[in-house]
Design brief:
The chain is mainly α. Helix content is 54%, strand content 5%. The protein is built from 12 helices and 3 strands, in the order ααββααβαααααααα. A 3-stranded mixed sheet has the order 2-1-3. The N terminus and C terminus are likely disordered.
Length: 257
């Protein structure tokens, strides 16, 4: 690596955050604001920056090519299409802190380790700007966290109610962001639990009606099939068959034939 490139990498600020396999302090907006205030993020670089995004009256100097490669929305926004290129674009109604964090997840010289709080902030922007790489990074993290919770890995053990609410959150994220693998896994895990556990959470409230009906219909069909009202797990087909055999082998009064 050339010395100039090495210096650039060393200057690149990073945030130390928890992943699904690490236990580290969670990033909050106050921490991000402090770090943003102590260093100039996305400063002008005459060799690499050629477009400015204005968010909350603050200027972010970026590479047009990087943005266009990452996002078809940015590509459409920044393409000249025979017209004079826009060198400065204002993005209204955006949080500066959240948008900077989103850009840090997109730009190649930045590295942000994901955690649950960060995903909550950047996932809507990844969907809005159609950044598929970031969408699937978030999905992979959430799927990994689900399996750690299900497997009760040390550091990821949760009370039943907290666990159910996390599954409901993942179901919402999957539905809203077209993350089908995440949606199907969360759906499967949420199905055995009583509706009362999560129906008053914001995750269920914000879930589209068609997804609510899909979940409730699937649960009703499962109850009818198993003849069991579950809150956490349904009996397996083998267990159902064993129960049926036991019933068939006894008289109505409970005596064996």
């Amino acid at each position: 690596m050339h010395s100039k490139q090495l210096d650039s990498v060393q200057r690149c600020p990073t945030i130390k955050m928890a992943t699904a396999t690490e236990s580290e302090p969670m990033l909050n907006m106050e921490t991000l604001s402090i770090q943003s205030g102590s260093m100039e993020l996305f400063a002008f670089d005459e060799e690499t920056t050629d477009v400015v995004l204005c968010v909350d009256d603050k200027k972010l100097h970026l590479s047009r090519g990087v943005l266009m490669q990452a996002s078809p929305v940015f590509r459409k926004m920044l393409a000249s299409n025979g017209k004079e290129k826009q060198n400065e674009i204002t993005l209204p109604d955006k949080s500066y802190e959240e948008f900077v964090l989103f850009l840090r997840c997109v730009c190649p010289l930045e590295y942000v380790k994901l955690n649950e709080d960060i995903i909550e902030m950047v996932l809507p922007l990844a969907k809005e700007y159609q950044v598929n790489s970031l969408l699937h990074k978030c999905e992979d993290w959430l799927l990994t966290e689900i399996e750690f919770i299900v497997g009760e890995v040390i550091g990821h053990v949760k009370e039943t109610q907290t666990k159910v609410e996390f599954f409901a959150k993942c179901l919402l994220y999957g539905a809203k962001n077209e993350l089908n693998t995440l949606y199907n896994r969360a759906f499967e895990l949420l199905l055995p639990y009583n509706l009362i556990r999560y129906q008053h959470t914001s995750f269920y409230t914000l879930l589209p009606d068609k997804n609510k009906w899909q979940l409730l219909e699937a649960r009703m069909m499962k109850i009818e099939k198993t003849q069991h009202i579950a809150d956490g797990s349904f009996p397996t087909e083998i267990e159902i068959e064993e129960d049926n055999n036991q019933i068939d082998s006894t008289s109505p009064l409970g005596f064996e034939y």
